[in-house]
């Protein structure tokens, strides 16, 4: 299981990256993160929603209530242009962290 | 037989107790809970087991309300302000009702001040009880508003002292304060409410509710502009 601080730091970027592929809803987002991380990143489910709402408040994503096939109401989230820009910026930064660590680890393993 | 729907309704009610979690948030969380439960049931868990696992995963109401508080803080303040204004409105309406009671008491017994105020308090106590009974009667017939009203009734039943505490200042304390401030101008309760004239009635019933409604609408618009 991943460290709590690391989950908190990466959560916004994870959500934005998932929503950049297609619009989605809370439960689906959490399931995808679980699957993609091989069950290594497990969030407390309820924490996702305040986070999504904060992204919406900052204008990075927008949301819409829709009725599903089973007749249940569900809130879908979609990434905005502002969100895409923010995602790209954050992506560069994560890349820097990733590259630096990779280089360091390569050296130490040789 | 395990009652899943009842469990979910109880869970919703528990979340609704938190000031920082709004009905829309609860709807969203409920959708999540149901999706989570049905996926767990597919994996072979019983309804009961699935419910407990799913609620555990979603987090306790304390954790949730702490997280939602950070996001909803502006709306929470708007809500508090609305309640304050609503309180003012209610106060004014009750004040008018109080003066109506005093008029009735004054007409029925005009000579004896003590008996007049006794009648006034008797009506003042009877009226809320009648309103209470009336509401409990509605809530049986009308299923749409039932949930909200039942919650209201339950909270009143749970806190009779508070209900009395609310009624006492409205009908008792105001004349008393006036008595302290003005000395001899209001010797008893009936005299105080009796002094309210027809313009006060009109203002209390029409003007002030209208005024505060306008203020609320204006505030609501400000909020919506901010949200966009």
Provide an overview of this structure.
- The complex is a heterodimer of chains A (110) and B (228).
- Chain A has a single domain (4-109), classed as Winged helix-like DNA-binding domain superfamily/Winged helix DNA-binding domain (Arc Repressor Mutant, subunit A).
- In chain A, β1 and β2 (73-79) form a beta hairpin.
- Helices cover 62% and strands 13% of the residues of chain A.
- Chain A has helices spanning 4-21, 26-36, 48-57, 81-109; strands at 61-67, 73-79.
- In chain A, α1 crosses α4.
- Chain B has 228 residues and is mostly helical.
- Chain B folds into two domains: 4-59, no CATH class; 72-227, no CATH class.
- Chain B has helices spanning 4-16, 23-42, 47-58, 61-108, 113-141, 146-158, 160-182, 189-194, 198-227.
- The model of chain B has no long low-confidence stretch (mean pLDDT 72).
- Chain A binds chain B through residues 25-27, 44-47, 49-50, 53-54, 57, 72-75, and chain B through 25, 27-29, 31-32, 34-36, 57-59, 63-64, 67-68, 70-72.
Topology, please?
The complex is a heterodimer of chains A (110) and B (228).
Chain A: H1 4-21, H2 26-36, H3 48-57, E1 61-67, E2 73-79, H4 81-109
Chain B: H1 4-16, H2 23-42, H3 47-58, H4 61-108, H5 113-141, H6 146-158, H7 160-182, H8 189-194, H9 198-227
């Amino acid at each position: 299981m991943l460290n709590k601080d690391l989950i908190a730091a990466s959560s916004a970027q994870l959500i934005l990256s998932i929503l950049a592929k297609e619009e989605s809803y809370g439960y689906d987002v959490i399931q995808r993160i679980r699957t993609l991380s091989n069950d290594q990143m497990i969030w407390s489910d309820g924490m996702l929603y305040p986070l999504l709402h904060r992204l919406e408040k900052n204008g990075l994503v927008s949301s819409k209530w829709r009725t599903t096939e089973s007749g249940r109401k569900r809130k879908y989230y979609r990434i905005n242009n502002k969100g895409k820009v923010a995602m790209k910026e954050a992506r560069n930064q994560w890349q820097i962290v990733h590259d630096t660590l990779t280089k360091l680890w390569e050296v130490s393993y040789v | 037989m395990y009652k899943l729907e009842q469990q979910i309704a109880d869970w919703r009610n528990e979340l609704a107790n938190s000031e920082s979690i709004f009905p829309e948030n609860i709807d969203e969380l409920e959708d999540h809970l149901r999706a989570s439960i049905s996926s767990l049931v597919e994996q072979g868990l019983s309804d009961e087991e699935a419910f407990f696992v799913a609620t555990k995963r979603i987090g306790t109401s304390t954790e949730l309300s702490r997280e939602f508080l950070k996001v909803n803080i502006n709306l929470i303040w708007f809500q508090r302000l609305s309640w304050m204004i609503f309180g003012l409105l209610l106060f004014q309406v009750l004040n008018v009702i109080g003066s109506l009671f005093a008029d009735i008491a004054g007409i029925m017994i005009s000579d004896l001040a003590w008996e007049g105020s006794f009648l006034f308090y008797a009506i003042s106590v009877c009226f809320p009880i009648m309103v209470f009974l009336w509401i409990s009667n509605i809530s049986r017939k009308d299923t749409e508003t039932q949930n909200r009203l039942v919650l209201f009734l339950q909270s009143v039943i749970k806190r009779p002292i508070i209900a009395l505490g609310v009624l006492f200042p409205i009908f008792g304390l105001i004349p008393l304060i006036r008595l302290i401030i003005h000395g001899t101008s209001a010797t008893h309760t009936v005299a105080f409410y009796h002094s309210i004239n027809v313009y006060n009635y009109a203002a209390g019933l029409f003007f002030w509710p209208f005024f505060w409604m306008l203020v609320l609408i204006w505030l609501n618009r400000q909020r919506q502009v901010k949200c966009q």
